[in-house]
Structures are given as C-alpha cells and as structure tokens.
What we know:
The chain is mostly helical. The chain is built from 8 helices and 2 strands; from the N terminus they run αααααβααβα. It folds into 2 domains: about 30-160; about 170-240, Recoverin, domain 1 (Orthogonal Bundle), CATH 1.10.238. Strands 1-2 form a two-stranded antiparallel sheet. Helix 2 runs antiparallel to helix 3. It is rod-shaped, with a radius of gyration of 45 Å.
Amino acid sequence: MTMHLPRKTTLLSIALLATLGLSAPAFAQTQEQLQAQLDAKKAAEEAKQASANAQAAQDAAQTATTASAIQPTSGTAAVNAAVASDSANQATTAASVAAGAAATANMASDEAATGGMQTKVASDVAEQAASTAEAASDMAGEAAAGAQNAAQDAINAAATNPQPAPMPAAAAQAEAQASVTSSPPDSVVGEYKIDFAALDANKNGSLSRGEVKANATLTGEFRAVDSNRNGSLSQDELKGWMD
Length: 243
C-alpha cells in the first residue's frame, strides 16, 4: 500500500531542504570569520606577552651592565653583561615580529568580517599570523630568561671580586712617606738638592738631626750621610749625597 504525503507537506519539506542547502556556505563563512577573530585575539595576546618578555630582558641587561660597571676589573662580569645585552636585543626583535604578526592577524580578521577578502583565505592568514606571534613570543621568553641568568652571573662575579676599599688619608700619607725613606739604613740615595744655609739654623757650618727635620728624605738618610758618625752633617758629607 502506497502512502501519499499531502501536497502541502511535500512542498514544505522541499522548501526546508533548499533553505538548508543554501545556508550551508553562509554558515561556513560565519565559522571562518569567527576563527579569524579568535586567531587575531590569540596573536594580540602573544604579542603582548612578547613585549613584556622583551622589557624583562632589557631590565636584566641593565642590571648586568650596572654590576659590571661596579666591578670593572671582573672580566666575567663584563662577559655576562654582554651576553645579557645580546639576549635583550634578541627579545626585542622577537617582540617586534610578534607585534607585526598580530597586526596581520587583526587585518585578516577585519577583511573576513567585511568581505574584503575571502573568508577562507582570511582565516588561513590569521591562523598563520597567530602561529608566528606565538613562536616569536616563545623566543622572547627564552631570550629574557637568558638575559636574567646572565645578569645574575654578572652580579655574582662582581661580588666575588670586590674593589679594594679606599685607603684612609692618614695611611696613604704614611705609605707615601715610607716610599720616600724605604732605602736601607746605610744607603745614600743621592741626586737631592737642599739649601744648606737655610737648614743651618745656628750657622755653625754643619747640620744636626734637629735642623734637617724639615727635609724628610735627608732625615731618613742622615745615618748614611753622616760618614764620620759625629751626629752632624758637613757640607763635604752632603756633597756626594746631593750630586
């Protein structure tokens, strides 16, 4: 027994099927537009993270440079500072790539939404741009970590090679005096010039220890110059010392 659907029902079914068939491409386009928007959003987030990583790398490089400057004699600190700076440059470049990819993804999403580009093409462009931004963000993160490690190494190197503390003024003066009078007790340094008449306060033709106190070098050499050990210096004894 054959069943016959009412003509009205048949026409309604045909119309429904036709509507579904016509709406399939539109539905696909809507999905592609939505995917392009999601990819653009992902690319923007990756670019933002890459920028933060680049800033962290730059801060680490500055820290390493400061540590190297505090201890300029530490070659290790200087090398690590250079490594940190190089890593910071890499992170900055990666962040720039991520930002460019995010801009491309956003443009593709807009084109898909407005019909300026085929939705399938626009969606593919946005997806590729998002992947590029993600890879660049990862690279910036690795570079930032490298910069931070190098900065810490520079700090450690500077700490293990501290600069000598500045010598107190009194100690520096004492060392300077010691360097002038560091000859052996019985040596004659020579090649010194003195004003004999000015030092000979009592004008007796010889110089006592008290009279030569104004000349630290001669005071230190007094015993060596006093060849006859009479406790005073004659012009003849001083002649060899001053020549």
